[in-house]
Amino acid sequence: MDVLQMVKWTHFKKRIYISLMDVIFSFFSLSYILAGFRITLSLVIFPVFLNLYKSLNPIITSVFTGMTGVIFRSLFMTLDGKSFIPAFKQSYPEVTFHLVYGLIYYFLYYKRKETSHFFWFITVVLCDLFANLSEVIFRVFIYSDIGFETNIKSLILIALIRGGFAFIILLSIHYYNLFTVKKEHEERYRRLVILSSELESEVYYMNMNNNYIENVMSNAYNLYEKLENDDDKKMALMISKDVHEIKKNYSRVIGGIESIMEDKVRYKFMTLYAIMDILKKNIDMYIEKNNLNISLNVYIKEDVNIYKHYYIMSVFRNLIMNAIESIGENDGNINFKYTKENNRYIFIIEDNGPSIKENNINYIFEPGFSTKFNKDSGNIKRGIGLTVVKDIVEKEFRGNIEVSSNSKSTKFIIIIPIEEME
Predict the structure, then answer these.
(1) How far apart are CA 401 and CA 147, in angstroms?
(2) How many CA atoms lie within 13 A of 371 on its CB side?
(3) Dihedral over alpha carbons 93, 96, 101, 107 (to 10 degrees)
(4) What is the pLDDT of residues 137-186, one digit of tens each?
(5) Is the pTM of this model over 0.90?
(6) Which residue in 27, 18, 25, 28 sits closest to 50, CA to CA?
(7) 1, 26, 76, 237: which one has the fewest Cβ atoms less than 10 Å from its Cβ?
(8) pLDDT tens digit sequence for 370-420
(9) Which residue range or ranges hold the Histidine kinase domain (predicted)?
């Protein structure tokens, strides 16, 4: 099946769907009946489908729907004991309605380059009105008992009512789609910010390692200059060169990540409310996904703009995830509080999980220190989360971090000068 045939088949399936919906809704009629002229709700949803399926030719779709409706309605009439031919004769003038409807819609709206919802409403009302008039005129030539002049006002009113309902449905769909797109955009933005925060932590740690690599390279070269044995000197020089290549590749990776973040995900500043809103949603999803019974509560007295927001989010996220891992499968609460005192920002993250042993408190910020051991896999956490937190707070914000722990709670207090945040 080539592309053209696939398109035709897709259009055919859409027309079948519209026709079936038209048949179903044709059973729901307004109580106002006009001498055999049924006022059905199918003509409320039909123009909505024409708007939603813009790729369909409205003339073909309208005639197809009309013919399908006539056949189905004639068949249903036979269930009441009526013969098919008389039933068909009673229903087939409806095809006139659909033909005129499709023609007016095609030339008035479908072929128009610039449109609006209001113009669509006007088009639908005119299509309904003149299609109804055409059907009535056609029926006059067949059934002489229809009072044509007395019903024009009624047809205008019905066209307005049906057009109004269709307009409301279309607007509802439109705004629902806008809401859905906005929600999806917010979700992507939230994930992007969280990802950026995680990348910021990793890049920060990689830069720390870069300094260690620089020291190793420098020491290897110093060793090369001090050694007297030629073989040893060659080995030391080779190590220095290899480490230099590692450093260059490492720097390229860091530069690439920072370039992506600079181009795609950096914003001048974020408010603390926005940061914590994104972080809380992410943490709540993590808690729900892992079936944990932990609550994260956020208390912010007043909002503040934060320029190094990826760093601060990385700090908060590391500390909160640390608290979650500490609480584990137990019931727990994590409280985030923010206050401003004496030109300093004070952030407190407190949890009611197991306390930190007194002999461990002095080492929790050391690289590689971790008490998180997986008994099943035998793996131990790499122990850099709190190290990164301390380095960011002290080096990026020129602040300090304090920790206290007892049988009731563990509390991390971050103190940052105002001028370093804004």
Answers:
(1) 89
(2) 14
(3) 180
(4) 887 777 665 555 546 777 888 888 889 999 999 999 988 888 888 777 77
(5) no
(6) 18
(7) 1
(8) 655 444 444 434 345 688 888 889 988 999 999 998 888 899 999 999 888
(9) 194-420
